[in-house]
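Exercise 3.2. Students should predict the tertiary structure of the chain below and write it as structure tokens, then compare their answer with the key that follows.

Predict this chain's 3D structure.
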Amino acid sequence: AGSQLREIFDKINNLLSGKSVQSGGRTVSVTQHPQALDFVYYKLAEKFVNQGEEEVASHRDAAFPIAVVASGIWEIHPRVGDLFLAHLHKKCPYSVPFYPALKEGTSMEEYQRMLGYQVKDSKIEEQDHFLKRMSGMIRLYAAIIQLRWPYGSKQGAHPHGLNYGWRWLAQMLNMEPLADVTATLLFDFLEVCGNALMKQYQVQFWKMMLLIREDYFPRIEAITSSGQMGSLMRFKQFLEECLQQKEIPLPKGALQSSFWRS
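Answer key:
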């Protein structure tokens, strides 16, 4: 509910602002230790990314309530935003977007980690689990860039707004596609913030969508094996429907004004 989200936001904001807050039956304040604020900034940013990786990966609609809190905190405490991007880029290099190259002397295990895979006891996580986590983080990022905390002062621009989403999309299309990963993440990203990008960039946005269909999609298709067709077909269907209807629907789970009255 909207009221619960406000409580969570206020508690985090109070903690970062040096006020005392109740946590786990104790009263804590960042004024209790000279490095406490830096520590809390770091851990909070990490926690937001973890929520993308875990909660949003399992429950896609969770992207919006988490993102609106993260966006509002970022606006008041920019350091959290910088650290959020650092954690995000490390866990999901595709959010830069960046595809690390295999350098001489790098072990395969280390390289898989650089690509965002979890490696435990020399075993690499399964592809579908990996893609699910990457999707969760990209969806959270796509939600953050379009959402603002509704009770903020809104004096300045969004601390990391839709122009970053436009830039991400353009950079993705300038890179050689990766089988499975590219189709999955483009679909996730456009499903979550395509509607907002469409409203902001209008004609330019539709030119970009046509470019994806005519030029970029065939390039993804060319490197996709028969076992990886699922994500590709989902993306193709989404593209076709949007171009046909000249509309990208509002994402499922988007926060409507009625939510804040709950």
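Discussion points: DSSP finds nine helices and four strands in the chain. The mean pLDDT is 94.
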